[in-house]
Specification:
Helix content is 68%, strand content 0%. The protein is mostly helical and 168 residues long.
């Protein structure tokens, strides 16, 4: 078996599609599109406000990564690979927006949002709940793959060779 087949291979239940839809369709695909469609509020403008370096470059870059990887996860195509950049995005999101809430002050270049009314552990946990849920969903997909109802499963399934078709 080639390394590519090993990366795509998945034998898990088809119901993993529910996790793929949660991660890809409900969160990353639409959030990525919104970073591109509304850059002042959700893309470069927001990135500048929270202290992400090079916001005019990183806003569209993250928007494209979230859109493309979210679509790949929805389709179940290269699912394990698609989770990796999204895990990085989630790590940066937690570090840049949730850790300042936990600490109650800026962390290096990352600014505590002005509209945060509470700080500390419980406030950070509350604000991070969606980020942590997405990170755990991505880790699940990285470990088990896309499931039987996916492009990955179809690509790695045994298909009859053209020379064997029609023979009994």
């Amino acid at each position: 078996m080639s390394w590519w087949n090993a990366l795509l291979r998945t034998r898990e239940t088809g119901w993993i599609i529910l996790v793929r839809l949660l991660v890809g369709l409900v969160v990353f695909f639409p959030e990525g599109l919104q970073k591109l469609l509304f850059p002042a509020v959700l893309g470069a403008g927001r990135f500048a406000k929270i202290g992400i370096p090079y916001p005019d470059l990183m806003g569209p870059f993250v928007g494209v990564v979230e859109t493309v990887c979210g679509l790949l996860i929805i389709l179940g195509l290269c699912t394990r690979l698609a989770t990796i950049p999204l895990l990085v995005v989630m790590g940066v999101a937690i570090l840049s927006t949730k850790v300042p809430i936990l600490l109650g002050h800026d962390l290096g270049p990352f600014h505590l949002a002005a509209d945060i009314k509470r700080v500390g552990f419980w406030s950070a946990q509350h604000e991070a709940r969606a980020d942590l849920t997405m990170a755990l969903g991505l880790l699940f997909l990285l470990i088990v793959g896309a499931g039987r109802w996916s492009m990955d499963a179809w690509l790695t399934a045994p298909h009859p060779s053209p020379s064997n078709r029609g023979r009994s």
